[in-house]
Amino acid sequence: MMKDDIAQIPDDVLGVCRRLTEAGFAAHLVGGGVRDLLIGRTPNDFDVATDALPDRVLKLFGQRFAIPTGLQHGTITVVTGTPPNQRHVEVTTYRGEGAYLDGRRPSTVSFSATLREDLSRRDFTINAIAFDPQANVLTDPFDGQGDIARRLIRAVGDPIVRFTEDGLRPMRAVRQATQLGFEIDPPTLSAIAKTLDSFRMVAMERIHDELYKLLAANKPGRGIELLRVSALLPEIMPELLEGLGRAQSALHLHDMYHHVLASLDEMRSREPVVRMAVLLHALGKPRTEEPAGHERLGATMAEEICRRLKMSKVDRERVVALVAQHAFQYESGWTDGDVRRFVQRVGTASLDDVFEVREAEVAGRGRGQPRDAETGALRARMASVVVAGTALSIRELAINGQDVMRILGVSGGRVVGQVLEALLERVLDEPSLNTRETLLALVPSLAATSS
Known about the structure:
Elements: H1 3-6, H2 11-22, E1 28-30, H3 32-39, E2 47-50, H4 54-65, E3 66-70, E4 75-80, E5 87-93, E6 96-97, E7 109-110, H5 115-120, E8 130-132, E9 137-139, H6 144-150, E10 152-153, H7 159-165, H8 169-180, E11 183-184, H9 186-194, H10 196-199, H11 204-215, H12 220-229, H13 233-236, H14 256-265, H15 272-280, H16 294-308, H17 313-325, H18 336-346, H19 351-363, H20 376-385, H21 401-408, H22 414-429, H23 436-450
Parallel strand pairs: 2-5, 10-11
Antiparallel strand pairs: 1-2, 1-8, 3-4, 4-5, 6-7, 8-9
């Protein structure tokens, strides 16, 4: 490995390796950190493989710095540095494994393995490379470096065995191919469809995590297509396939399915939640005869998918709201009040995301329209009519429910809410009305109209 590559290994990680070797044990960096160094990417983390048994690792680093996070599987997490710049380095004893019975973990683990045996249990060749930073020696028994040069994701050994052991590995193959811009080796790709029973055993939370990582890639549309080609997409969200081959209006170059992929690749925001909304934005189209209004059905379908993927309540609500709001049609005839009502409906906190979804969708049509073809004029109107201090919600009115109840001589009831809503409608049309004196004077007449 070149000096420039070694220079990217943090001193505290080298210190962990040095502590092990000084105690007479081997210490090899393994996994994604080594892969990224060889590819030329900045590693996110580093893992260490050693022949030291777990209890020996615990003694070497002490209870203060060594956490038995996966003791039964030979993994000790060593904490380096000081807050807030601490790093967690996983130190794992070389291990052999028994049969995988749950599609996730081996039934037994033995710690008598060699480094080569330890590498042989890993998922893909590019992740089965070890580096001894003390001796500057690479161990690459499965030609992971060759696959990096070929830009290839290839399973270590028999891909059917690898995918049967851990049902999440097919999803990881697609995700890593997407992130790195690699291809999947044909035998590895074809093995995915043959091991779906193991994939079906994987918890949706784990699939959701991999999907988020895939969506954050430079070209996530390619990853979704790999999920389709590999037979994983029907297992995760078959609804997306309903748009395959379904033509759209002349505004669109692509069918419904490929339009979604193109829109994904046009995203500027890398936030997975917003990208998920783009992925799901057209769900309702194949099931509606009229494209107008598809977003309402799409929002319902998006909610079902988000629940299936065990997304958090906050993320789910954001995705559903973005799907529901993305298809707005701005017209020059909108009044200033209409513009303010749009902002109220979407919510100021969500405006940027809604515009991002809309602009990616326009760019994804493939007809060369400017991204802001349907948002530019509205943005300009919003800048001129929605200014700081403009009331866009009931809580921003100059009076509240207590004021309404006092004037009407009531202790509550529907009329209070109806009056406040009517006041907000007046203020949206004419913001200057939002003074305490003016709104208090309007309460009696609005209450009469509401009753």
